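Ops channel
N.P.: pipeline sanity check, posting one input/output pair.
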């Protein structure tokens, strides 16, 4: 969820870059930096943590007259959040900022090191600037060197590069990561990775297409497409509503966050998968030495992701796993043995009940790990180890992408532990890695699916309640689906294991009881189908979600055919999120700010 800004003009470049980065804070970051080229000299500033730290470092720096500048907020992928790893990255006479991942950076870095190039950071991004300067030595122009560099790098990126050899120009490239350029009546040029930094600065913007590259200087904007054909900029008027721009055209932040799950899961996976293993550079492998049990502790949505994790750890890692509700765990006298890894899960890292259980585990001298979305939060600072989910800031109170990224982390972590414990064959782990790479496409929202759920939602606005039912790992997903509906629609909903219906709850079955049935093809399908048929026989209204058509369903939501139950899990997750959203919209509720709830529960 990194952010990019750039500026060409005569005003105070530092202030424009910092103001632009402030407007990207909502996306999440752990370090930031700017580089300004003026009168043939670069000034560069970087800081770890919040932008206030960068502002403090630049308080005595003032630009007067023409300058070009680039800035960046970074969410650590390759390399820890340090000043050396923060962008912009320096060559001998050039600076670069970059969002995305350079997949072949290791190969290029090895060649550059052999040529005597010295690297300062652990990042993949630094390869870009050194490769550019290598090409600059044998190219006719800086643009030729930049074009050649783009042909040599593989991956997804949005790049801005400035060099002393052409001090009035910013070179750009976009492939798989968003970027735009804006203009105003004063002839200034602005770059950014989203609309919000340009509001109040630019009047019109051009959104770059995948494969676009080129350069911008005070007099021209030159764009080439992926076929190296020169094309004209397509400028559009820029909305001046900052909140609307942050929503990227969506009605609600929750809706935007559902749609961006594909991108944030890609960020979660980034740099953590090789062809045959899961890589968590942030973990010391000794963390699992002597560990015979994993205890997961969380609240709300994070508790549901922990429940999901328990199935994965026991199935793949072959390690005993227990799950605790933090608000309950802290007030009993739990047995806490030294062979237990204590794992807490929180979107914010500040959830009061969960934080207290972490303190209990620390006092008992247990090894601790936090799965969190916010670097430098209380839990991150306290735990022995941390895995950041990289979901970016989640503004909707009802969590969506935080849950998605947490479950993604747990799937990866179960494979990581499986390798350490030799509980899975290498070939099996390789197959799962291929499946993990498919998650971003599994959670993409199609217009057809969203339209169907919008139409369907009008049938579920009354009645005396909802049952969300599923088996195995789909039981925690049923719990999460029920929670989403409760949170934003204020309708009564409960999640149940499908096999528990006959043990009491089926007494409630009638036409006014809505059953949302999760029927994955690749996980206990016939068993689950049988449970749903029992409800249908009692006249419950059935909405089935499956890739296999179910003739006893009153409503059927078809998901794509897939090869594994976890891909079905992620697609069903999106369906449940959208269904809750559309029911809430029809009821006229404030989707992003449901009554009585807060985003970060920092009190007991």
């Amino acid at each position: 969820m990194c952010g990019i800004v750039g500026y060409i003009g005569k005003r105070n470049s530092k202030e424009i870059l910092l103001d632009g980065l402030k407007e990207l804070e909502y996306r999440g970051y752990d370090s930031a930096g700017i580089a300004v080229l003026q009168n043939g000299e670069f000034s560069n500033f970087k800081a770890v943590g919040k932008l206030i730290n960068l502002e403090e470092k630049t308080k005595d720096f003032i630009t007067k007259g023409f300058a070009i500048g680039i800035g960046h907020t970074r969410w650590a992928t390759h390399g820890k959040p340090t000043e050396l790893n923060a962008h912009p990255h320096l060559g001998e006479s050039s600076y670069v900022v970059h969002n995305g991942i350079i997949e072949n950076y290791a190969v290029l870095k090895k060649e550059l090191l052999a040529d005597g190039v010295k690297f300062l950071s652990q990042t993949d991004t630094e390869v870009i600037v050194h490769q550019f300067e290598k090409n600059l030595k044998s190219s006719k122009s800086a643009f030729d060197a930049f074009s050649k560099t783009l042909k040599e790098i593989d991956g997804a990126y949005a790049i801005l590069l400035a060099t002393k050899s052409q001090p009035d120009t910013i070179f750009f490239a976009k492939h798989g990561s968003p970027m735009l350029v804006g203009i105003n009546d004063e002839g200034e040029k602005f770059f950014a990775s989203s609309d919000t930094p340009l509001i109040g600065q630019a009047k019109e913007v051009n959104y770059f297409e995948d494969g676009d590259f080129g350069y911008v200087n005070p007099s021209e904007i030159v764009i080439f497409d992926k076929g190296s054909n020169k094309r004209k900029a397509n400028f559009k008027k820029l909305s001046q509503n900052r909140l609307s721009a942050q929503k990227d055209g969506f009605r609600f932040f929750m809706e935007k966050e559902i749609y961006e799950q594909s991108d944030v899961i890609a960020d979660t996976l980034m740099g953590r998968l090789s062809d045959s293993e899961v890589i968590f550079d942030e973990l010391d492998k000794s963390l699992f030495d002597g560990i015979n049990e994993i205890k997961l502790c969380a609240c709300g949505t994070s508790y549901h992701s922990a429940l999901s994790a328990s199935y994965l750890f026991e199935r793949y890692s072959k390690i005993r796993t227990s799950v605790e509700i933090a608000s309950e765990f802290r007030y009993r006298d739990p047995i806490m043995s030294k062979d237990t890894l204590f794992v807490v899960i929180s979107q914010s890292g500040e959830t009061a009940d969960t934080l207290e259980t972490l303190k209990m585990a620390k006092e008992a001298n247990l090894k601790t790990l936090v799965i969190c979305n916010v670097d430098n939060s209380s839990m991150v600072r306290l735990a022995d180890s941390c895995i950041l989910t990289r979901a970016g800031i989640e503004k909707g109170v009802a969590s969506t992408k935080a849950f998605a990224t947490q479950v993604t982390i747990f799937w990866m972590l179960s494979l990581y532990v499986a390798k350490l414990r030799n509980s899975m064959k290498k070939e099996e782990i390789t197959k799962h890695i291929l499946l993990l790479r498919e998650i971003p496409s599994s959670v993409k929202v199609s217009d057809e699916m969203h339209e169907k759920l919008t139409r369907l939602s009008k049938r579920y606005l009354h009645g005396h309640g909802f049952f969300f039912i599923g088996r195995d790992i789909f039981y925690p997903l049923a719990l999460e689906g029920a929670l989403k509906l409760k949170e934003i629609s204020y309708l009564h909903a409960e999640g149940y294991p499908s096999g528990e219906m006959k043990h009491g709850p089926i007494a409630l079955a009638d036409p006014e009881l809505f059953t949302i049935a999760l029927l994955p093809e690749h996980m206990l399908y016939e068993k689950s189908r049988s449970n749903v048929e029992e409800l249908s026989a009692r006249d419950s209204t059935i909405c089935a979600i499956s890739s296999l058509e179910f003739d006893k369903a009153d409503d059927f939501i078809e998901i794509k055919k897939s090869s594994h139950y976890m891909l079905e899990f992620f697609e069903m997750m999106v369906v449940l999120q959208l269904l809750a959203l559309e029911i809430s919209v029809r009821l006229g509720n404030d989707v992003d700010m449901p009554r009585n709830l807060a985003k970060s529960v920092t009190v007991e």
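N.P.: looks fine end to end. The longest strand covers residues 94-102.
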